[in-house]
Amino acid sequence: MRFWAATLLFLIAAAPARADAPDLAFGAYQRGYYQTAFAEAMKRLEKNSHDAAAMTLVAELEAQGLGVPQNMPEALRWYRLAAAEGDKNAQVALALSKLSGKGVPRDVAGARALLEKAAVQNHAGAWLQLGILALEGNGVAADFSKAADDFRRAAELADPEAAYSLGLLYREGRGVEKDPQQAAFWLKKAAEGGFLAAQVEYGILLFNGDGVPADEPGGAKWLVRAANRDNPVAQNRLARILFAGRGLKQDRVEAAKWNILAASAGLRDPRLDGESNKLTPDERKKVEQALKVYLGK
User: What pLDDT band is residue 141 in, cutting at 50, 70 and 90?
Assistant: First the structure.
């Protein structure tokens, strides 16, 4: 499981200063007018020094250097103030800083406490990170059962990475009883949510009929989607499919193109190289052209 270190861009649920007022600060932030967002957030804080959502927005802008010079110490100060006011996004941001040691001493216990506060407020990212912490153990044995519970909570809040992680646990039978159908269910959720690794895994499951009825064309479509997002595993599997003509019409030129792209990312496949070596001179020229088109996208 990889460490979840994505920034909180677009996760800041900044509440309007008044129930009947438009949220000018967050609206400007969403549209990329960062200086305006900063100014409007500061105006809100002048009117209400306990406006936690405005604090979190200021912190994010300063942490990322958006519209203002990047200033991590000041960003962390605002995150702390907002977290103390109960803002779940600030709590998660501060927890991630404590986990990475970015700008503050690494403090797993402190991070966990903040994540638990955000989790009870239904913050999907907090549940996801708690699940990752359960897997990492941090000096104790990994708790796969707790990780599964935490991932489930995050997945039910529509977090695609959590759905992917839960799907893997079901596939491997760790923390939960091994269940190919449940694995496929959660991997599909994650794939539909746009999580790249899940699109690859679900495409392969669907193609092979593992936990779901076999659907080679359906599986191939997911692999096409992932391959076009530069995933080398998807590119390799798609090359195999296209050379074999299973799930998609046979296309030796496209197959060779995807094989070259996968190999350039370090995933070599001698069997596919052998197939590519059988291409005619005219087909090789078409492969070169297809690569130029793809790389110029």
Answer: confident
pLDDT at 7 over 60: no
CB burial class (10 A; 0-12, 13-18, 19+) of residue 286?
middle
Torsion of CA 166, 169, 170, 176, to 10 degrees: -100
Q: Could you tell me which residues come within 8 angstroms of residue 30 by beta carbon, excluding any fewer than 6 positions away?
A: 10
Say whether both 142 and 42 belong to one domain. Answer: no
The rounded distance, in Å, linking the Cα atoms of 283 and 243 is 13
The dihedrals phi and psi of 137, each to the nearest 5 degrees, come to 80, -50
The reported pLDDT for the residue numbered 11 is 41
DSSP assignment letter at 142: -
Q: How far apart are CA 86 and CA 16, in angstroms?
A: 16
- Regarding whether 75 and 161 lie in a shared domain, the answer is no
From the list 243, 228, 178, 234, the residue with the least C-alpha distance to 206 is: 234
The answer to whether position 29 is within a domain reads: yes
Domain stop point among 93, 118, 143: 118
